[in-house]
């Protein structure tokens, strides 16, 4: 009796796992942050659904943590919000071994925003930067490239504020969750500058090309990717999603809509 019960449970699990692929609704569920990722997915949604017969369910997340947890727990089939260094660091910290990148879509040049010219900076002025390991290092390297600081190790993408060896203006760096950077920069009068990820900047009314004092160049290694679980690397529906995302039509949409603040990698 116990064996029969186990078989029934396993069969039920198997059927449920196929619902998104062979069930009546045939849905591909992808997690994304709102801007620009979800906007790009919305742009291709009709084409994807017409060409595959699958519904594209875009699940919007407001931070950089939950999309990978949802993917690991198979609440979604793929996600689109991060770059490879972040995925690798997140997976290492969580003990995940099955999340993989299958395609690069675009680069969002990180920018430095300031309420006053750099020459007016004074000792103790506060600058907010992302607190996750990969984006903190990315922010500090950007500040070094533009002469605000010097780092002990310039060959690592994982530098922290503890690696600063020279601080030209004796700035105070405050580490925050990336999602809170734009609002803190705008509303906290004690903050004079911020290094902000482009998706959160655009979402909060900042134009990286117009409002940032300087941004990364288009050769940044931080291309935003589509991530899936390893078992879905060769899933034909997900591959079709990639092929639709990497078309001239999408490239032109990105270039025209974001005017250089988001750069296609294909």
Describe it:
- The protein has 11 helices and 13 strands.
- The chain has 266 residues and is α/β, with parallel strands linked by helices.
- The protein folds into 2 domains: 2-108 and 221-264, D-Maltodextrin-Binding Protein, domain 2, CATH 3.40.190; 111-215, Periplasmic binding protein-like II (D-Maltodextrin-Binding Protein, domain 2).
- The strands form 3 sheets. Strands 2-1-3-12-4-13 form a 6-stranded mixed sheet, sandwiched between helices.
List the helices and strands and how they pair.
Layout: H1 2-17, H2 19-22, E1 27-33, H3 34-52, E2 55-61, H4 66-72, E3 78-83, H5 84-94, E4 99-107, E5 111-114, E6 126-130, H6 133-145, E7 149-151, E8 164-167, E9 172-176, H7 181-187, E10 191-196, H8 198-203, H9 208-211, E11 214-215, E12 223-229, H10 236-245, H11 248-258, E13 263-264
Parallel strand pairs: 1-2, 1-3, 6-9, 6-10
Antiparallel strand pairs: 3-12, 4-12, 4-13, 5-10, 5-11, 7-8
Helix pairs in contact: 3-10
């Amino acid at each position: 009796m116990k064996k029969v019960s186990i078989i029934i449970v396993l069969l039920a699990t198997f059927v449920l796992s196929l619902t998104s692929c062979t069930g009546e609704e045939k849905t591909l569920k992808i997690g994304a942050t709102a801007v620009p990722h979800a906007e790009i997915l919305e742009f291709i949604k009709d084409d994807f659904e017409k060409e595959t017969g699958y519904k594209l369910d875009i699940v919007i997340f407001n931070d950089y943590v939950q999309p990978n947890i949802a993917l690991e727990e198979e609440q979604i089939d793929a996600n689109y919000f991060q770059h490879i260094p972040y995925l690798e660091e997140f997976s290492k910290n969580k003990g995940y071994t099955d999340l993989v990148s299958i395609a690069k879509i675009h680069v969002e040049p990180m920018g430095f925003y300031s309420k006053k010219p750099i020459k007016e900076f004074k000792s103790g002025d506060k600058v907010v930067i992302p607190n996750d390991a990969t984006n903190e290092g990315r922010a500090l390297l950007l500040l070094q490239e533009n002469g605000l600081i010097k780092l002990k190790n310039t060959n690592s993408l994982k530098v922290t504020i503890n690696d600063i060896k020279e601080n030209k203006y004796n700035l105070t760096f405050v580490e925050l969750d990336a999602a809170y950077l734009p609002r803190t920069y705008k509303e906290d009068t004690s903050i004079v500058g911020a290094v902000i990820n482009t998706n959160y900047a655009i979402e909060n009314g900042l134009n990286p090309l117009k409002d940032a004092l300087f941004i990364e160049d288009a050769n940044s290694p931080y291309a935003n990717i589509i991530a899936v679980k390893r078992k879905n690397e060769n899933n034909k529906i997900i591959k079709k999603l990639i092929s639709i995302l990497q078309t001239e039509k999408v490239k032109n949409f990105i270039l025209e809509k974001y005017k250089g603040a988001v750069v296609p990698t294909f």
